[in-house]
TrEMBL record:
Gene3D superfamilies: Cytochrome P450 (1.10.630.10). This is Cytochrome P450. SUPFAM superfamilies: Cytochrome P450. It comes from Suillus discolor. Belongs to the cytochrome P450 family.
Amino acid sequence: LPLPPGPRSLPFLGNVGDIDMVRPWRTYSEWKAKYGPIVSCRLIGQTVIIINSEKVARQLLDQRSAIYSDRPAGPVPKLFGIDFITAFLPYGDTFRLHRRLFHQALRPDAADSYRDLYLDKARQLLSNLLGSPEAFEKHLFLYTASIIMSVTYGYDKVSWDGPPITSIAKLAELINVGIQPERSAILTAFPILTRLPPWFPGASFQRIAQRTRTLALESMNEPFEFVKRNMAAGNAPKSMVSDLLNEMDGEKHAYSEQAVKQVALTVFVAGFDTSSSTLSSFILAMVLHPEAQRLAQQEIDSVVGIDRLPDFYDRPSLKYVEAVFREAIRWHIVAPVGLPHATSSDDVFEGYFIPKGSLVVPNIWDMSREGHDDPDVFRPERHFASDGTLLPDTIAAKPMWGFGRRGCPGRFIAEAATWSAAVHLLAVFRITKAVDESGKEIEVKEEFTSGVVCRPVPFQCSFVPRSTDREKAIRLGD
Ligand code: HEM
């Protein structure tokens, strides 16, 4: 049987020269128009299957997940000392154990049990923004980091420039650089390069790898020991690690401390950049679309009133806010091609052969545009049916979280935490373009970085308190 259709490829490099390496999802969408929703190509000796439709992704990655849940084998995670991170594990026993621990700690009801925390940290975010609005990116990072560190290890407060955040955040940043797909493809094709000494011209990746290995060990051990010390002293707050360690005692040998450490560090690595980028993108959308912002604020004022701040029980009544939130996420999807899956055995789909070991790339960017008119336009109204009711498709069911047994286990926490921040920002601030010294508005562009996770290119904006009473209340809560 033939492979799925696709562009002709050169003997060794394959289709490397055909792909927009900065925004590969755009090339994949062009191929969809030519070849259909499932496309095959070659990248330096590797068969790549690109899925350009949610329907096909569900048929293969969800319904045949026993075949489509591996990750590409390559030397990069090991070289960088991060092969224990769940997202890089091959499909096997360790992977299954990690997923079981994630399920225990992050399933929907567990994620709901942290609602007070999301609200508390969102109010802290507002206070930080009142203090230094120009540093909003840093405050978003701190918001995400403090929720993750509290849920995972029980930290009450974390500071941006102190341990353990400095090393973990640096690690997350280096991993983002280290796992760039182009570099992975080259090192996978020429594993000999991984033996180059760090001083060799062009081998700067070896220095990054060395630093990442050290940071990974540090970041795994330091916060873990913090929980163990607290547990020994009898004052460990509830957290993912303390819960798992407590359960481990009752369930001897079911899993090891090492597995708990690995899963815990994965939460930060996988959740930090993705969640803070989502919020940054939401703020950019509000700056560029003041009318949508105004309508959302009008709704908050009428549902919540002006004497209190929003809470999760308001969410079902805040339908326009929900549409704005959904649209901000859809408008610029944070991980446009998610993470590649790999097949662990041969398969046949609609008359096409999909060989074992193929890389399978879901084009989530294209899927988020399917069925929408003018998909580039920011339009919250698209999430309402013609009778004015909000469409039933929830954020948790969207392709943005990936697929099948590899789908994002942090989606419930991520969604609740980003919603909490977004609705608080809307309740308290008018988010506008910043003005320069002469009073002129500083233009803001709809520009995003590229990579596994995409965030808006740094921009300036203003956070103008909408009510002096609320401003006072937040300042007093400092
Ligand atoms: C808006 C924020 C987030 C987005 C958009 C997002 C999206 C994704 C995507 C697309 C994948 C790849 C799924 C696949 O391969 O099919 C993924 C994997 C993963 N995510 Fe998230 N994620 C977010 C936040 C989080 C958070 C907060 C956590 C942890 C609490 C988390 C934990 C993970 C883990 C552990 C994996 C790897 C799963 C595996 O390989 O089995 N993510 N995420």
